[in-house]
Amino acid sequence: MKKYIFTLLSFMLVLASCEVDSDLNIDQKNPSSVPSSGLFANGTRNFFDRINGWHENRLYAQYWAQTTYPEASQYVMTGLRNNVWATIYSNVLQDFKGAKELIIANNEENATNKLAIIDMMEVFAYSTLVDNYGDIPYTEALDSDNANPKYDDAATIYSDLMSRLSADIDNLDVTKAGFGAGQDPVYGGDVVMWKKAASSLLLRLALRVADVDASKASAMAIKGAAGAITVNDENFGINYLDASPNTNPIYADLVLSGRNDYVAANTLVDIMNPLNDPRMGHYFEKKDGVYTGGEYGTANAASGFSAISDQLKTADLKGTVISASEVAFLKAEAVARGINLGGTVSVHYDNAITLSITEWGGSEADASNYLTQSSIPYATANGDWKEKIATQKWIAMYGIPFEGWTAWRLLDKPTLNAPEGMSYSDIPTRILYPTTEAQLNGTAYNSAASKIGGDEKTTKLFWDKN
Amino acid sequence: MLYLDLTDRYDISSALPIDNNKYNYYAVSSSLIFDNLVNLPWLNFGKLRAGYAEVGNDLPANNVYDTFAVIDNFGSSSLFSYPGTKANSNLVPERTKEIEVGLETKMFNNKLSLDFSWYKKNTENQLMAVSTTTATGFSRKWVNAGEIQNKGVEVGLNYSPIRTKDFSWDINVNWSRNRNLVVSLYGETENIVLASYQGSITINATKGQPYGVIRGFGFKYDNNGNKIVDANGYYKSVSDQIIGDTNPEWNGGITNSIKYKNLKLNFLVDVQKGGDVYSLDMHYGQGTGLTSNTGGLNELGNPIRNSLADGGGVLNVGVTEDGAVNTTRARGDYYGGAFYWGNSSRNPSAMTVYDASYVKLRELALAYNMPKTLLGDKVSSASLSLVGRNLWIISKNVPYADPESGLGAGNAQGYLSGSYPTYRTVGLSLNIEF
Question: B141, B133 in Cβ contact below 8 A?
Fold first, then answer.
C-alpha cells in the first residue's frame, strides 16, 4: 500500500463587509415619477389610435376590401387578436390605473373630475374588450403579482361598467376643471364635453344589452340620452396633428406606408350606389367615372376599383369614436324598442342621417334631398325597424367601423357578403382570444373558452341574442 | 494520490434587491489517481474525479425598481407610460447546483485514452424576464422562475492505431448528450414564453417538458395518428401545440489526423442527431412559390400548378374529419393554396418544422513541415498549411439552409429566418520560426 498524501490545495475564505446603495440600481435615464396627466394622456391617445387604426374593423364591417393580401378580409385574425388585448390592457388600462393611483396619492386638485374622466375611459376600454372577445379578465386584471388572472363573466362586467359610468356622470362637476387644456388631447380640458361623451357612451352600452336586460337598458338609455352629444362639434374624437407620429393612423397606414392594401368594398358601394348617397364622394374616389367596389374577401386589383377617399387620408383627420349621428341612431333604436326617452323613431332617424351627411362635409340641402327619396325616410324605407335603422346606421358608421360591424352583429342587417369558400354563418361575431393566452394563462383561458361556448370566431357574445 | 479542492465565495450584488443581495457559494471537488493502486499492466493512467458545486448569480442592473418610459409629445401633451417589463423588488439570487463525476484513463501504451463524465445541474430560482399575459398590465416581468434541470454525459475517446516513425494515425471521438427538463415554474404558471417570433411561433419553457420546446399551430390528428384534412384538401390546424423540441438527442465529432513524414492531414466531421427548427424562410418561401416543391408534377403526373379542374394540386396524405382517406387535392395554383403560410384553421405552422440533424465536414487541414535541410541555419522550423472550415454539409434535413444558421442566441434556439449561407473559409498559412 502506498501512502496517501492529502493535499489541501487551496482554501480561501474572503469575508467582506460592504453595503451597496440602492441608488446604484435605479435606472437614471428614465423618470421614477411622472405626472398623472402624462399617463392619462398617453393611455387616451393609445386608445383612440387603436380604435382608429384597427382597419380590420373596416373590413369586418365590409366598408373596405383588400388587394394583394386578402387574409384579414377572410377573417384571419393573426395580428388583431393579440393586438386588441395587448394594447388595451398594457398600453391603455395600465396607464389609466397608474394615473388614478397618482391622483389619489398626491391628493390632486379637481381629483373627482379627473378620476371620473379616467374611469369613463376605463369603462370605454373594458367595454371594447368585452365587445371584441366576450369574457375577459376584469376583477383580477392589472395585478402584476397575479400572473394568472381569471376571466369574468361578460354580462356581469357590462353591468358593473354601466354602474361605474352612471356614477362617473353624476360625479362630473361642470363647474370645476378637469385635466389641464394641454394635457387633454380630446376636449382640451372641457368637463362639460366629457360629461356629454360619458352620457353618450352610457347610451351605447345600454342598447348593447337591450335584448338581455331590458329594464337596465331602459334606465341607462334614458339617463345617457339626457346628457348625450347632439351636434357634430361635440363628437368624441382626438384631434390628430399633421406631423408624424401624431397623425391619424389611416394617414400613417395608407399614405406614409406607400402601400395600396385597400379599396372600396362591393358590399358598401352596392348598397350606397342605388341610394344616390351624397356621402359616397366623401368615402371613396371615383374609378373611371363611377363608384365601384372590389369583391369582399378576395384579392382585388388595387387599380381596378374605387380608392379610399383623400378626405379620409388627411393627416390631421379627427379620430372620432362616438359621433352625434351614432347617438341619434341609438335614440331611434331606443324609441323603437319602446324606451321612452322622448321623440319619435322617425325624427331621431332622420336627424341621425342628416348629422352623418353634414359630419362628412355634405350640406343640409344634400341631406334633405337624400331624405326625399322614398327608400330613405323611416316612414317609407324597406323592412322592419331593425333593418331600417341597421342599414342607415351601418352606412353612417363608416368613420367608426367597429360600430358598423357591431350594428350588423346586434341588428343582423344589412346583408353582408361571405368571402369565397365561406358561408354566411362563418362571418365572425367576435374575435379570437390572443394566441398567447393559452400559453401564458392556460387554465383561466380554457375555462373561459368553454364557458362562452368555444373560442371561435362565430361564438355569439352575451348581448348578441336575436 | 487523492486530491481535494475546496472553494468558497461570498458575493454582494447591487443588481439585486437590497434585502436579498448577499449570497455565499462554494465548490468541493476531489480526484483519485488510481493506476498505481490497481497495478494493471495495460493501464498507463487512471483518474476518478467527483465534484459538487453551487454557484449563485444575479441579474442585469436596473430591474428591481420600476421607472417610466418617456413618449414623444402629442402636440402640447407630454406623455409617459409604463414600460413593457415589470421590475421586481422581491427577487432572490439564482442558484445552480451541479454534481459531476468523471473517469479519465490511458491504456495500452497510451494508444487508447478515454474520458467520461456525467453531470446533473439544477438551476433554481432562475432569474428571468418572463412573458406574462398583458392582462397583468405588462408583457414581461422579472421573476425567480422555478427550476431547470440538465443531465448528461460526455465521452471523449482517443485512439492511435498506427504510430511509426514516418506514419501515424490518430482518431479522436467525442460524443455528448444532454437532457433538460423544466422541473417547476413560478406560482401556478405552466408555461413561460422565452421568445415569440413571426409565424405565430414561440419558444417555451413548459413545465414537465424540455427547456426550449417550439409551440405554434399544429396538425390536427385523429385517434389513429392520421393528419386530418379539411373539405378543400388542406391540413387542418390546432392552435397552441408543441410542434418541436429544439434540443438535439446527441452531438458528436470525429477528428482524424494522419501524418506521413512531413505531411499532416487533419479532418473533423461533426454530427448532430435530432433537435427541431422552425423555418420562416420555408413558411414564406413555399407560401410564395419560390421553392421547387411548389412546382413540378403531382401523383397523377399533372403539373401541381394546374387548376384543380385540370388535374393540378397536391394530394395531402391524411384523412377527412369522418375518417375516410383524403382524396381531395389542395390547390397549388395560387399562394393561398397547399403551400400557404397558414392560420389558425388550416396549414399549421408545423408544416415548416424540420429535423435539425446534420453531418458536416467541419474542418479539413493539410500541413507540410519543411524539411530541415531546406531551411538553412537561421530558420529553426517552417510549415505551410491549408485549412478549410465548413466545407461540406454531408447530410441534413432542413431545405435550403444550414440547420445551424438559426437566430439562436441565449435562451431561444430553433428558429430560422433569413438564413445566410454559412461561411466557407479557406486559409493558407505559413509559419516560420527563427
Answer: no
CATH class of A36-248+315-452: mainly alpha
d(CA B135, CA B242): 24
Chain B residue numbers with beta carbons less than 8 Å from the beta carbon of A432 are 344
Read off the C-alpha cell for A203: 347610451
Can you tell me which residue has the cell 395600396?
Answer: A260
Q: How many CA atoms are closer than 13 Å to the CA of B58, on its beta-carbon side?
A: 21
- B74, B187, B188: residue with CB nearest A41: B74
The 10s digit of each residue's pLDDT in A149-161 is 999 999 999 999 9
CB A25 to CB B61 under 8 A? Answer: yes
Q: Which amino acid is at A271?
A: I
**Which parts of chain B sit beneath pLDDT 50?**
none
Distance of CA A454 to the CA centre of its chain: 23
Percentage of residues in chain A having pLDDT higher than 70 = 95
DSSP class per residue in B223-261:
TTSPBBB-TTSPBBEEEEEEEEE-S-SEEEEEEEEEEET
Instruction: Please give the residue that has the higher pLDDT: either A397 or A436.
Output: A397
Helix and strand numbers (H, E) in chain B are 3, 24
Residue A386 binned pLDDT confidence (cut-offs 50, 70, 90): very high
List the one residue out of B88, B87, B92, B149 whose CA is nearest residue B125. Answer: B92
Q: Which among A33, A77, A241 has CB closest to B75?
A: A241
Question: By CB neighbour count within 10 A (0-12 exposed, 13-18 middle, 19+ buried), where does A117 fall?
Answer: buried
What angle, 0 to 180 degrees and rounded to 10, lies between the N-to-C axes of helices A324-336 and A385-396?
A: 170
Closest CA to A407 of A50, A54, A63: A63
Chain A from 49 to 108: CB within 8 A of any B CB: 71, 76-78, 85-86, 89-91, 93-95, 97-98
Domain parsing of chain B, residue ranges: 2-433
Angle at A283 between CA A278 and CA A288, to 5 degrees: 85
Distance of alpha carbon B263 from alpha carbon B244, whole angstroms: 46
pLDDT digits (tens, 9 = 90+) for A30-86: 999 999 999 999 999 999 999 999 999 999 999 999 998 898 999 999 889 999 999
Q: How far apart are CA B344 and CA B7, in angstroms?
A: 54
Nearest CB partner across the interface for A95, out of B6, B15, B82: B82
Cell of B22: 448577499
Shortest Cα–Cα distance, B2 to chain A (Å) = 6
Please report, for chain A, the start and end positions of each structural domain, with discontinuous segments joined by +. Answer: 1-33, 36-248+315-452
Residue B341: what pLDDT? Answer: 85
